[in-house]
């Protein structure tokens, strides 16, 4: 959250202007802070000195630190223009507090939500992940269908701000009544440990009644009863897991099962390897733009309803 912008050609100006920021309106008295500074193409070039001046200004306003959890204060000086911000998030936003157990190469919840939206998912159709890992796609889909707020199970740094309203925030986080849907969000995996992790994560996220998890291989995959929906999967793609020869066979088997048993369903596959997407034999449109995922560049490949 940006709290100040001003020109600071030297440290004396930075010190004076930082002391003019209304810190008591922003943070509680005694609030601990950590100040991180970066300087580029500026006459103030010593980042440690810049951070020290801002921290001294904060302490002069708020008094000695008395709390254990600090608020991060970010100071960025570029071409003598100084911007001071408070970190309102704390932990990275994809850490939603619901994933206590993870499988190998897990997909971030924020990316799962992005790919679901890109596939046109709005919460009114079933979703099936045939290689669900720790259940990320299934749990995100159930949360969207239930209208649950992402991040409802975690804490945020803004809860330590002076203007934070606990009652208003509690109203936003209140437990939602799960809808009575004519379908379930299904995850399958051949790894019993991954299935157990998925079930535990769904319980923690409060969506277990909307989900179902099965320990089975791709070859045992069957179309669920009810309306057609979306099959979405983040399969292993060799760069991080497995060897590519075996993975081509796995993708080929997945494509054959989907073509044979899932008429009317759409398919979305997230992969860093175009050759593996093509190995499914599915009628994909042009893939989506590359997205960073764990040091890799992945794309979403989508089909229309299968015939």
From TrEMBL:
UniProt key word Transferase: yes
Enzyme class: transferase
Signal peptide start and end residues: none
Sample GO molecular function, one term: nucleic acid binding
Enzyme Commission designation: 2.1.1.-
Sequence ranges assigned to domain Ribosomal RNA large subunit methyltransferase K/L-like methyltransferase in this UniProt record: 99-279
PANTHER family linked to this entry: RIBOSOMAL RNA LARGE SUBUNIT METHYLTRANSFERASE K/L (PTHR47313), RIBOSOMAL RNA LARGE SUBUNIT METHYLTRANSFERASE K_L (PTHR47313:SF1)
Pfam families given in the database record: UPF0020
InterPro entries for this protein: DNA_methylase_N6_adenine_CS, RlmKL-like_Mtase, RlmKL-like_Mtase_CS, SAM-dependent_MTases_sf
Annotated organism of origin: Rubellimicrobium thermophilum DSM 16684
Keywords (A to Z) from UniProt: Methyltransferase, Transferase
This protein's name: Putative N6-adenine-specific DNA methylase
């Amino acid at each position: 959250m940006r709290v100040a912008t001003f020109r600071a050609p030297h440290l004396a100006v930075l010190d004076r202007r930082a002391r003019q920021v209304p810190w008591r309106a922003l943070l509680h008295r005694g609030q601990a802070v950590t100040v991180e500074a970066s300087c580029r193409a500026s006459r103030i070039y010593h980042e440690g000195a810049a951070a020290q001046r801002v921290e001294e200004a904060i302490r002069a306003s708020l008094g000695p630190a008395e709390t254990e959890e600090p608020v991060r204060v970010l100071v960025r000086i570029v071409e003598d223009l100084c911007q001071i911000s408070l970190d309102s998030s704390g932990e990275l936003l994809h850490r939603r507090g619901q994933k206590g157990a993870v499988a190998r190469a897990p997909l971030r919840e924020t990316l799962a939500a992005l790919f679901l939206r890109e596939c046109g998912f709005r919460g009114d159709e079933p979703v099936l992940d045939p290689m669900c890992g720790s259940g990320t796609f299934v749990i995100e889909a159930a949360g969207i269908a239930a209208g649950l707020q992402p991040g409802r199970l975690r804490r945020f740094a803004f809860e330590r701000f002076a203007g934070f309203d606990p009652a208003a925030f509690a109203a936003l986080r209140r437990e939602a009544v799960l809808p009575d849907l004519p379908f379930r969000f299904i995850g399958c995996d051949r790894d019993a440990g991954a299935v157990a992790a998925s079930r535990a994560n769904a319980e923690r996220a409060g969506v277990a009644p909307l989900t179902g998890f099965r320990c089975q291989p791709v070859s045992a995959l069957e179309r669920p009863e009810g309306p057609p929906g979306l099959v979405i999967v983040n399969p292993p793609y060799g760069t991080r897991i497995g060897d590519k020869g075996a993975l081509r066979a796995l993708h080929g088997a997945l494509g054959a099962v989907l073509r044979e048993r899932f008429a009317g369903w759409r398919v979305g596959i997230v992969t860093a390897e175009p050759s593996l997407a093509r190995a499914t034999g599915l009628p994909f449109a042009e893939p989506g733009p590359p997205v960073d995922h764990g040091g890799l560049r992945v794309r979403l490949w989508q089909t229309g309803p299968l015939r």
